[in-house]
């Protein structure tokens, strides 16, 4: 089934009787050439690009729950490529370019909206740092604009510019950044992969790996053993648990990241805004809800829920930035489990076990990286070589000293 404006009109006039399921619900085969563990955004994107861009066949995606039940459906939907370091910026700019063509590639409305992102400046030193970041972005082919206080006030006049502790002095803007519909991204990639023959198997939990003589032969699942020539793991916050079944200990901690949405309001926030003096970021959904978040919970957890102190901290950041937010009623909140790496940057690499590949450690950056992560992981699985933009995301960089410390927080996952 192809989507088009004509199709929508036809179904509206014929009682909507021609819509079909977006993907099949197949039984697992006894073996595949490639098995992807994890049916989130990264796993589905990997399967899609394996089939579409690299001509691979006999692929399965195994998801322990339903599609969209993990972090792909539990985030604040921001897409951007405003990074500084050479190990990160080209990768995220590659992802940004894939976002810009995603809906045409998948023939699915993922509601990609390039409304821009503004990182606020509160000190002279921060202006210097953002000027440096903006120049690095331009060197990598991305877009950036340094806004003065007056230019910023024209775009977002409702901010607390004269806050006694955190006066706003300007901002760094990436006009091509914005938001996308998180579950729409998952559904689009799932549909696109299914159309190309990928088996998407839900309610199929991986319970172990079959490894002999240093080579992976397949996975044990809640629906029986499934053989595979190659296995790619992309399970976000469950990375440490899943990879421990293969005898591996990862340089990753799992923490909860909470997000929130307010009641529906009239259009207020033009794009995405981030607080430069605290960890708070906000945008507005098409339904009118203010979508915002902040820091991760400070303790390790695999639970998809958070605690009250972080809720209070996030709301305090919002009040300091825009006091008007205090008049909005909080509608709901949720938590996603973040796989926090030791330097705040991801891993896309082969493991020491032949045929076993790992994609994880995305910290806060997982959603915005979805297209490039899927493409780079597919490239690695298909060719056994890292993609040019992902060469720095090696698993052994922590042992060999090639860390990518974007935030400059050191080897403390809870601070990234």
TrEMBL record:
GO biological process: tetrahydrofolate metabolic process
Any GO molecular function: sarcosine oxidase activity
Matching InterPro entries: FAD-dep_OxRdtase (IPR006076), FAD/NAD-bd_sf (IPR036188), Rhodanese-like_dom (IPR001763), SoxB (IPR006278)
Keywords, comma-separated and alphabetical: Cytoplasm, FAD, Flavoprotein, FMN, Nucleotide-binding, Oxidoreductase
UniProt key word Oxidoreductase: yes
Location in the cell: Cytoplasm
Domain Rhodanese: 34-78
Reaction(s) catalysed (UniProt annotation): sarcosine + O2 + H2O = formaldehyde + glycine + H2O2; sarcosine + (6S)-5,6,7,8-tetrahydrofolate + O2 = (6R)-5,10-methylene-5,6,7,8-tetrahydrofolate + glycine + H2O2
Name of the protein in its database record: Sarcosine oxidase subunit beta
Organism, scientific name: Celeribacter baekdonensis
